Amino acid sequence: MACKRGALIVLEGVDKAGKTTQCQKLVQALRRKGHPAEMMRFPDRTTTIGKMISAYLENQSELSGQTVHLLFSANRWELVPLIKKKLEQGTTLVVDRYAFSGVAFTSAKPGFSLHWCKQPDVGLPKPDLVLFLQLSPAEAALRGHFGMERYEKSSFQCAVQQQFKHLMEDETVNWKVIDASMNVEDVHKDITEHSLNAINIAQNLPLGEL
Ligand code: DGP
């Protein structure tokens, strides 16, 4: 019998919501329970496109909003063959940000419609589960100062949060909102429960497309 496919699980949220910590803990928990799992993150700054994105985020280069939006999307597309291969091999992928960050961050800039922002990611593998780590911008600010990167300003993060709210109205995506103000272990417990459920369901379903 062919091996069952892995699930594509995405963690989203504004900066400082705890996505990276929770991705790492989830991968470890899934492995302990016998599910092959690996972490990925977007942007993947190791590729040629990723290096261009990284320079932009670090304010070392200037690019138009349209250009950088397409680069972020291209960075996801260049990893699609690997994503599909891993899932087919039965590995569950836990992904730190995906197309939803792409749309939320660009559409938070003046002059960018949600419709325009969504187009480059149409056709990407559709996540089986999107966990949205909900944390108010005020609580995020209490977790320490933002760094020096381009988007790390409270006012911009508020606008991003607002765009995520619009995206969560899309019922064709399996969103689960997680209260990221809880302690790390309680957040982890919620996330693990939803993920195990998604892995079971995904086994019997074909991978969808955004
Ligand atoms: P991170 O490496 O997760 O800290 O992400 C870097 C920054 O880039 C963060 O402020 C969120 C933003 N970002 C992530 N993905 C995208 C995207 O696809 N498009 C845009 N415009 N920004 C993104």
UniProtKB/TrEMBL annotation:
Matching InterPro entries: P-loop_NTPase (IPR027417), Thymidylate_kin-like_dom (IPR039430), Thymidylate_kin_CS (IPR018095), Thymidylate_kinase (IPR018094)
Q: Which domain of life is it from?
A: Eukaryota
Output the GO biological process annotations, alphabetical, semicolon-separated: dTDP biosynthetic process; dTTP biosynthetic process; dUDP biosynthetic process
Q: Which reaction does it catalyse?
A: dTMP + ATP = dTDP + ADP
> Which SUPFAM superfamilies does the entry mention?
P-loop containing nucleoside triphosphate hydrolases (SSF52540)
Single GO molecular function: nucleoside diphosphate kinase activity
Enzyme class (EC, first level): transferase
Which residues does the UniProt record annotate as the domain Thymidylate kinase-like? 11-191
Keyword list (alphabetical) reads: ATP-binding, Kinase, Nucleotide biosynthesis, Nucleotide-binding, Transferase
A single GO CC term, please?
nucleus
Checking PROSITE patterns in the record gives: THYMIDYLATE_KINASE
Q: In which pathway does it act?
A: Pyrimidine metabolism; dTTP biosynthesis
Q: What is its EC number?
A: 2.7.4.9
Q: Which NCBIfam families match?
A: DTMP_kinase
- Record's function text: Catalyzes the phosphorylation of thymidine monophosphate (dTMP) to thymidine diphosphate (dTDP), the immediate precursor for the DNA building block dTTP, with ATP as the preferred phosphoryl donor in the presence of Mg(2+).
- Family affiliation: Belongs to the thymidylate kinase family.
> Which HAMAP family is this protein grouped with?
Thymidylate_kinase (MF_00165)
Q: What is this protein called?
A: Thymidylate kinase
Q: Which organism is it from?
A: Takifugu rubripes
